[in-house]
């Protein structure tokens, strides 16, 4: 059995991505395995390809109902019979699908975790010949995961008792070392069967814009990215509605998504985005789980997310086709207060709230760091000895570097004199010498560091403290009211054994530019093929990326195929795609070439 031949014939790809073949071979050998791969890293191939080879059914458990239909449509499009069963399927359709599955004609069945713990459904499932159990978004299984869902844990026992000893495959894109270990214990996966391909996204450029006029920045950015697909995340429904109305009035094809809208409106907005009827959607974090739209070129965060996990998962929705994409965070320190408010109002216990505050502190460090943004994230997920990416806004920041050791020592000395018992707000006011923290029972005015930075504003001093925290000179205590403490690195600075350098504070001019139009292919032909794809998608009532991804269209523009044999060389074109679309796309390319020569 040649796996590369199956990959090309069924899915249209010439080579496996890192880690895919290794996982597939373990699954085909009947083992339990786990893949930790970045969003867009090709996780689904790791169970879709084995499903075409294994004799029985591949059961895919996923919490993402919105993703199931896209996956099923994509599989059926290339001739691999698949279906799904979840709460959106009416009972008569459910019965019909179950009878069809019983015949053995279906190769993949997608279900939500709640279905597994349903006794009636589980009894039926136990009679089916299952060769592989694939658990997508497996981090949800872990109590350390960032989106805990109890039905996921409850289903593990019943799945382990299914007859036939099927192979197991757990997949996730966002798992810290702690979560990985937790998953391995829960699912009985041997350490040697865990494949980690790294979290780095080489096609994704991370950027942070600090202190900008957010509304003005958004307008300029989306104007420079017209006809490109994007997502803007905002922390509050009010922000979503205001941005939506603002951009709608400016003539953009824009939608919105948040929990305050009706189910029908949310569904319609999501469908319009998936089917390219709108270019841009503005949403709270309620949007995006399971969105498999491959041609999202940018993700803007109008408000900072609460955790690195959430942030990286959200930015991972850009560039899933492997083409260049951007993720821009518009950071204002005041946004952190919104998260603290939500954490304090949450129903979790003190331990849960504390874990969220610690994660928020790491997110604030990310927003304040001057080191490589991708490296910061990779360090967080436990990838050591990684190199700077060379393309993020910090790596490309060419401002003058200045020595700020003296000011840093003032801050660190003040924290020590305050016995490391206070948070950023109080420390800042003591350093600047504000009256409201003088002459009270704490007698801060008696400290030698009181007012030592009186020539600075509160904002400037606060940014310096953020910088020291983000770059490891300060750390945060645990507890309900976190305080700032000196790290070993900070102690070295205070003793004069280590200098602190920083980029000079000034505005970095940012000129947004189109991401797709990179000059490496004919953009006019690309647009012609996009329109053709859209026409075909609307006739077939499927999302355009189900037919071909932007990456495949770009490769057509690069190779300019003139025959069926050459069309098969396009990445993402297999035998079924050639039969369905080869003639019409070859004709469109030939017509364009002819017009270009005669014109």
UniProtKB/TrEMBL annotation:
SUPFAM superfamilies for this protein: HRDC-like, P-loop containing nucleoside triphosphate hydrolases, Winged helix' DNA-binding domain
Chain ranges of the Helicase ATP-binding domain: 24-193
Family, as annotated: Belongs to the helicase family. RecQ subfamily.
One cellular component (GO) term of this entry: replisome
InterPro entries (alphabetical): DEAD/DEAH_box_helicase_dom, DNA_helicase_ATP-dep_RecQ, DNA_helicase_ATP-dep_RecQ_bac, Helicase_ATP-bd, Helicase_C-like, HRDC-like_sf, HRDC_dom, HRDC_dom_sf
UniProt protein name: DNA helicase RecQ
Residue ranges of domain HRDC in the record: 519-599
Catalytic activity: Couples ATP hydrolysis with the unwinding of duplex DNA by translocating in the 3'-5' direction
GO biological process per UniProt: DNA recombination; DNA repair; DNA replication; SOS response
Molecular function (Gene Ontology), one example: four-way junction helicase activity
Name of one Pfam family that matches: RecQ_Zn_bind
Top-level taxon of the source organism: Bacteria
Protein source organism: Companilactobacillus suantsaicola
Keyword Nucleus in record: no
Cofactor: Zn(2+); Mg(2+)
Catalytic EC class: isomerase
Positions of the Helicase C-terminal domain: 214-360
Keywords: ATP-binding, DNA damage, DNA recombination, DNA repair, DNA-binding, Helicase, Hydrolase, Isomerase, Metal-binding, Nucleotide-binding, Zinc
Presence of keyword Phosphoprotein: no
E.C. code: 5.6.2.4
